[in-house]
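Entry 14. Structure prediction run on the chain below.
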Amino acid sequence: MTTSTLPSACEPAPAAHAGTPALGRLGLAVLLSGGFITIFDLFVVNVAIPSMQATLSASFAQINFIIAAYELAYGVLLIAGSRLGDRHGRRRLSMLGMAGFALASALCGLAPTPGTLIAARILQGAAAAMLFPQVYALIRVSYDGHARRRAFGLLGMTLGLAAIAGQVLGGWIVHADLFGLAWRAIFLVNLPLGLLACWLARHMPESVEPSGAAMDWPGAALVGLGLALLLLALIEGPARQWPAWTLACGAASAAALAAFARLQRRIAARGGAPLVDMALLAQPRFAAGCLVVMLVFSTASAMFLCYALLVQTGFGRDALTAGLIFAPASVGFVAGSMAAPRLVARYGTRAIALAALLYGGATAALMLQTGSAGAHLEPWSLLPALVWLGAAQGAVNTPLVNLAMGLVQDRQAGMAAGVVSTLQQVGAALGVSAAGMLYGGTLEAYAHASAAERHAHAFASAMQFNVAAILAAAALLWLLGRRR
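Output returned:
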C-alpha cells in the first residue's frame, strides 16, 4: 500500500480565511469521494491484470504501461493541477477533474486494444492530477483548527479504505464478471459515480487564489517527455532485446531532463515560478530525502504488480481470492501507520530507518519463501509475511513525507511539497518498470517450466529490486538521522 500523499498534494493552499464558506457535510462528502476514486483506481487495476491479459492478449510490457501510464501522468501533472485550481477556481477544477476522470474511465472500460487502454489510462491519470490537489486545498481553506484536523482525518481514513477496497472490492467485481464485462466493470462503474459527484459539486464553495503562480507548461512538457521516454526504454528494451531505438529513447530522455533542469534555472533566475526550483534539489539533505521517497514508493506498485501475476496467473487463483489474501496486509498498514508517529517522536529518524529494515526483511522473506517453494507454494501461506510487510510499510510511509518536508525551510515548503508529491508517483512508475523488467526476463528464462514454477521464480527475481531499493533507503535514513 502507498496511500501516503502530502496534506498539500502539491503546493499548499493558504490557511483558512474568516470569510471562507464552509464545505458542509455534502460538500465534504463529494470531496472525499474524489479522493477515494483516484486512489481506488490506483490499486484496483492490479487485481484485474490477468483478466486484461486474457481478453486483450496484452503483452507483459503493455501490462506494465497500463499501470505506469496512470502513475506517470498523475505525478507529472500534480503541480499543474494545484496551480490551475489556485488561479481558476478549485471547485471548477474539481468538477472538471471529476468529469474528465469519469469519461476517461469509460474509455478505459471500452478500450478494444492494449494501446487504447494505455492512452485512456494516461487521460485518467491527467484527470486525477486535476482533481486530487483540489481535495486538499478546499479542505484547508474551508476549515480551521479542530474542524480542519477532523476533515483531514476523514480524508486519511478514506484513502486507506480506497486502497483496501481496490484489492477486495475490485477483486470481487472482477470475479463476479458483472454483465459479462470481466475487468471492464472496474472502470465503467466510475462513470455514473463520477458524473453524480460532479453534479453534486455545485454544493461546494468556490475558492480562488489569484496571486497563485502561473503554470510552467514548457517545463511540464519537458519533464513529462523525459520520463515517458525513460519508461519506454526500460519497459520495451528488455522485451525486445534492446534494439537501437530503445537506446535512443534513453539518450533522448537524458537530453529532455537536462533541458528541463536548464529551463527551471532560467525561470528562477528571472524571478519566475519554475515547476521545480533546482536550488532546492541542490540542498544535499533534501535531495537525499527525495531519493528516499522515490526508493520507498517505487516498491509498492512493483509489489502489487508482481503479487497479482504470481497468485492469479501463476497459481490460478481468482481475483477475489488474491484480494482477500492481501487484505490483512492493509490492516497491518493501518496499524503501522498509527504506531509510527509515537515511535518517531521518541526515537527520531532512526525509527523510520529501523522500520525500513523491517520492510526490507518482510520483502526478503516473501522472496525467499516464494523462490524456495516454487510450484509447491500455497498462496495463503504468504499471509504472515504480507501482514509483516504491510505493518512495516505503514511505519515507513506515514512519517517519511513529513521527514522530507522537515529538511527545508518554511518558505520553501510549497515547492518542496510539490516535488515530494510528484516523486511519490514518478517513483512508483519507475518501480513498476524496473521490477517488471526482472519479472519478464525470468519468465523467459524459465519458458519450459510450469506456469507456477515460472511465476514463483519471476516473483523472487523481481523482489530483488524491492529489497535493494529498501536497503538503500534505510541506509540514507540512517545517515540523515545521524546528521540530524
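The chain has a mean pLDDT of 84.
Filed with the rest of this week's runs.
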